[in-house]
Design goal:
Chain lengths: 103, 175
């Protein structure tokens, strides 16, 4: 009695849409970044699950997970850099209030 | 006595942790708590990777997500001292639109996801050798590109957050 693949996919989809709703609803830029991380991680779970259950000998799906890790690290570093430099201009992290991205 | 029931039980606990953590990240108006719960969600996700037999990915998950990304996010929280407007968290212009969009995409995905039930699991065992072989043979070039991307992101983050030296700014203005 092992866990079926569908269960992993459902958890992955649920986390992805929780993150999606967070990105669409929350207005704090830092929280939006956190929700994007949740979405990326949900995609990772789906990739690993499909790779383990359907993949042949090699681990191609898991290789993509490593690339997603790299992208996520780069994204959060640059995203926080942008948020902090915008915050230094005007002390606001509400994305509705940040109208212009000019320096 | 068999221990077949252990895996579904652990899976259920981990999925409750993942879903509850995700919901808490979206719902909480206290950002520090949300960031720490995000780390908890990532830890539960690492447990799921172990359950799937991908121990190396779980290790990277703990190192990168729970370690690095959570610390970065906490730094972001520390430097920006403004919470969400707590009252207006879920009653604003884009909330109905967001609900419609998420429902429209989530329901087909859930239906498709539930249809994957018949796949048999591969035998477990370490995934490090297969992973490393893939990375350094078929995916060697994208791997190098990824390292360049990380370098560019690092330089970009430093440039973006660098405090401007007042003397240097004055000098530039005079020019």
């Amino acid at each position: 009695m092992t866990v079926p693949l569908g269960a992993y996919i459902v958890v992955s989809a649920a986390l992805f849409f929780i993150g999606c709703a967070g990105v669409l609803v929350r207005r704090n830029a830092v929280v939006i970044l956190m929700c994007v991380e949740l979405m990326l991680n949900a995609a990772n779970l789906a990739l690993v699950a499909f790779s383990r259950k359907y993949g042949s000998i090699d681990e191609r799906g898991s290789v993509f997970v490593i690339f997603v890790f790299v992208i996520a690290a780069a994204e959060v570093a640059v995203g926080l850099g942008i948020i902090l430099s915008a915050y230094r201009n005007r002390p606001v992290v509400d994305v509705d209030e940040i109208h212009q991205m000019r320096g | 006595m068999t221990f077949d029931f252990v895996e579904p039980v652990i899976f259920a606990l981990l999925s409750i942790g993942v879903i509850a953590g995700g919901v808490a990240v979206v719902m909480l108006s206290r950002i520090t708590a949300a960031a720490l719960l995000m780390a908890f969600t990532f830890l539960c996700m690492a447990g799921m990777f172990v359950l799937l037999g991908a121990e190396t990915i779980a290790l990277f998950q703990v190192l990168i997500y729970v370690g690095a990304i959570t610390v970065l996010i906490l730094y972001g929280v520390m430097f920006t001292k403004f919470g969400d407007r707590p009252r207006a968290l879920f009653f604003q212009r884009q909330t109905p639109l967001a609900a419609v969009f998420v429902a429209a995409v989530a329901i087909p995905v859930a239906i498709i996801g539930l249809s994957f039930t018949s796949a048999t699991s591969r035998p477990g065992g370490g995934d490090l050798v297969a992973l490393a072989t893939s990375v350094f043979t078929d995916f060697a070039f994208p791997f190098e590109i990824a390292s360049v991307l990380l370098l560019a992101a690092m330089v970009g983050a430093i440039v973006l957050t660098k405090r401007e030296d007042p003397e240097e700014a004055a000098l530039r203005r005079r020019r």
